[in-house]
Design brief:
four-stranded mixed beta sheet; about 625 residues; single chain; alpha/beta; globular
């Protein structure tokens, strides 16, 4: 297990920006003072790993990488987790196995410690296709080469979990992957592919592992499974793809591209089976040009249903074509259980909960109609497709009317108007007429009489001026959304739908508790509760660190209502520990309302301080309404 202060580093690695002490304290379950203590400990490593500033704390990734590199030589001997990781790597690299006595002597630990480590390793191997074979003091890792590579990949990802992608744990002095990455992306584009650069990091890891294993004379067999000797596997003049079956033309093209790039960057020629395996991985992470008509029809059917049921506009042929291409590759990845990892999953889930939920529905329909099973990372990629399309067609209902008050002098007013129009885009309408009828006034002179929303800027506005105007527009838009949410909440949460304290119940029991309240109120039936549980099993509805919003995908409630449970003690909710749970039920005639309430509710409670305030103040129903009203008006 990592040191306590390393948990702080892991939390900071999840954010690119600064994180406040309060938010870190909530995430780690400690006090602000303890956070400061962890920062001090992190910075006693010989590097200033955590930087402090007015906005909070930020991880210096370069400094942290140097700390990890300095540790690497002694990690195995210094910590049980490091020692076990080293033992697994040694087992993978030793086709004839290891001698327990020699392992203990090399690691400077007792044989009983090694035996205990082997017990942990054996437990870890469950479900991987690998096992430990024992013959006296000798222990050997047994299983297909592909499974061993998956195990190596998981080890590297664990070491990279704190935001540092360092492949040197596989091979000391391994060359940088960045030139290869750049060349590969360029080559894919030149060949007419559209690479998914978020997922290409996984390809780099597979390439690094392949180079490492081939260098150790451990290569994939013709079917991509059992290992064979690398010696003599590449006949002189043979082209990639000459062995291991007859690949498709697209896959052969990719194998040729990979072969050329690997030889250019690493001066290594991989065997045909290795190249075809890597080509298969790349081929499911780029947009191919072939879609079966049946798949296209299924995607159209699902998109039409989403558009109808959620009142969103998605029926664009180009969008459906792009989505069908993605689903085609997704099906191939799912068939091989080789999912793409998405570094944006957590941020998409918390920032765009409604779009993520549409993606969950899309994934559930793909599973029902096509048997395609996906994980959270793949759902996030679906959400990126849906979100991009919705952004193109989004409603302008929150557009802010902005009046520009500039004394006439040559073209000074027009220059300011043009600058604002370019900066604000379609979030604001720049209007002529009486400034008092606008939502916001941008003026170069302070108004003679007080006005509710005025931003004073220079005649030739600076970047700071533009940022202040943007911030005010965002505040007004947010205020409108929250006002609508406050109105909705006041008539959807009744006193019988509020629960203070859940008595240590688990996730499913809390959903059933709130479901029973809604059933007793005549809002939903048992089928809706089961639907909410099914939705929860697909992907956790803990959209922020402290808030969960369970719900069913079907809108079968007799009326829109929300049941809320609040507990000072954390409720374990998948990987999160939440304090507020809101079971949302919507009626068929509340579909338009669903999107606004869902996103705004999560937005309002995305700040830990808002959740803390609600937990402290909502001791009864009156307190709940008072706190919600206060939070919605800020």
């Amino acid at each position: 297990m990592p040191e306590n202060w390393e948990r702080l580093v892991e939390a900071l690695a999840d954010d690119d920006g600064a994180v406040t002490a309060a938010r870190l304290a909530d995430r780690l379950g400690v006090s602000d003072r303890t956070v400061r203590s962890y920062v001090a400990q992190a910075n006693r490593t010989g590097e200033v790993v955590v930087e402090s500033g007015p906005d909070g704390y930020r991880l210096d990734r370069s400094a942290w990488a140097r700390v990890l590199h300095a540790r690497s030589a002694t990690a195995a001997a210094g910590s049980p987790d490091g020692r076990r990781a080293s033992l697994i790597r040694d087992l993978v690299d030793a086709p004839d196995g290891l001698d327990v006595h020699e392992v203990a002597e090399t690691a400077h630990v007792s044989e009983s410690t090694v035996e205990a480590d082997l017990g942990r390793v054996r437990a870890r191997l469950r479900g991987t296709g690998l096992s430990l074979a024992r013959d006296g003091s000798r222990v050997q890792l047994v299983g297909p080469e592909t499974a061993m590579r998956r195990l190596l990949g998981s080890l590297v990802r664990e070491e990279s979990r704190r935001g540092i992608r360092d492949l040197s744990s596989l091979r000391a002095g391994f060359p940088s992957m960045e030139p290869f990455r750049t060349a590969l992306v360029s080559g894919l584009r030149d060949a007419g592919y559209a690479p998914n650069e978020y997922a290409l990091d996984d390809v780099l890891l597979h390439v690094a592992i392949a180079l490492d294993r081939v260098g150790r004379d451990r290569v994939l067999g013709p079917t991509g499974g059992a290992a064979t000797s690398a010696t003599g596997t590449v006949p002189t003049g043979a082209a990639p793809g000459d062995a291991g079956g007859a690949p498709s033309t697209a896959r052969s093209d990719l194998a040729v591209l990979l072969d050329r790039r690997v030889r250019a960057e690493f001066d290594v020629r991989l065997p045909p089976a290795e190249l075809e395996h890597l080509a298969r991985l790349v081929g499911t992470r780029v947009a191919t040009s072939r879609i079966g008509p049946a798949r296209d029809e299924v995607v159209r059917e699902i998109v039409a249903r989403i558009s109808r049921d959620w009142l969103v506009e998605l029926g664009d042929d180009r969008f459906i074509e792009r989505l069908a291409l993605h689903v085609e590759n997704l099906a191939a990845r799912a068939a091989e259980q080789s999912y793409s990892r998405n570094p944006l999953t957590a941020s998409i889930k918390s920032a765009y909960p409604m779009i993520y939920d549409l993606a969950v529905y899309l994934a559930s329909e793909l599973a029902r109609l096509e048997g395609i099973t996906v994980n959270d990372d793949e759902i996030a990629y679906l959400a990126m497709h849906l979100g991009a399309q919705l952004e193109r067609t989004r409603s302008r209902g929150d557009v802010v009317r902005v009046a520009v008050d500039v004394p006439e002098y040559h073209d000074a007013r027009q220059l300011l108007v043009d600058r604002l129009r370019g900066a604000l885009g379609d979030e604001a309408d720049l209007v002529d007429g009486d400034p008092s009828e606008a939502d916001l006034v941008v003026a170069v002179l302070a108004p003679a009489s007080p006005m509710p929303a005025v931003v004073t800027v220079a005649p030739f506005p600076t970047a700071d001026d533009i940022d202040r105007v943007r911030a005010e527009v965002a505040r007004l838009r947010r205020g409108r959304r929250r006002a609508r949410l406050a109105s909705t909440l006041s008539h959807t949460i009744g006193p019988e739908l509020f629960v203070r304290g859940v008595g240590g119940r688990d996730r499913e029991a809390v959903i059933r508790l709130l479901g029973d309240r809604l059933i007793d109120a005549g809002v939903i039936d048992e089928a809706y509760v089961e639907g909410a549980l099914e939705r929860e099993r697909m992907s956790s509805t803990a959209f922020t660190d402290l808030l969960a919003v369970p719900h069913a995908m079907a809108m079968t409630a007799t009326r829109s209502a929300i049941a809320i449970a609040i507990d000072e003690r954390a409720i374990e909710w998948g990987d999160a520990n939440v304090h507020v749970v809101a079971l949302i039920a919507f009626a068929e005639d509340g579909r338009a309302e669903f999107q606004a309430v869902f996103d705004q509710f999560v937005e309002a409670f995305s700040e830990p301080e808002n959740v803390r305030r609600l937990v402290r103040g909502a001791n009864d129903y009156t307190g709940l309404l008072a706190e919600l009203s206060g939070l919605m008006s800020t």
